């Protein structure tokens, strides 16, 4: 249920980023890919690929692109992220940083390749792809920092220190 709520929140955030008048580099962020990375903790690679497919198709619908290439790109990115996370047993900040970088890079590469096979011109060039990878990776870094702060705040040692301060 948390993953579904995160998916809806990421879709709304992505819609807000693209709808507002932000600097084009900031608007290139794809928070929906972070949900794909988050699903790698819960599902096997095929399950994460299904999550990536849903994320890519939702992105295609929101941006009024051709339906399909984004879904394929999301599915491939989800499978690759899940396979790498499982293979190298990543967790903590490394999980989010590498996962978001890998998801964004795979998604952009497969999306560009699938558009090239269809003979369709992409709505952004190489610089836009780099901006998408950079901003999605930066969002992954932000999530990693937030998760680390949350774990530190809720750690048993921190709780003991708070109790001792009040005594």
Number of strands: 0
Radius of gyration, taken over Cα atoms and rounded to an integer in Å: 17 Å
Sheet with the most strands, sense and barrel status: none
Please report the number of helical segments: 8
Total tally of structural domains? 1
| Helix and strand composition category | mainly alpha
Assigned CATH class:
Mainly Alpha
Judging by the overall fold, what is the CATH architecture?
Orthogonal Bundle
Report helical residue fraction: over 70%
Determine the CATH topology.
Arp2/3 complex 21 kDa subunit ARPC3
Shape: elongated
Strand content: under 5%
What features would you highlight for this structure?
167 residues; Arp2/3 complex 21 kDa subunit ARPC3; 8 helices
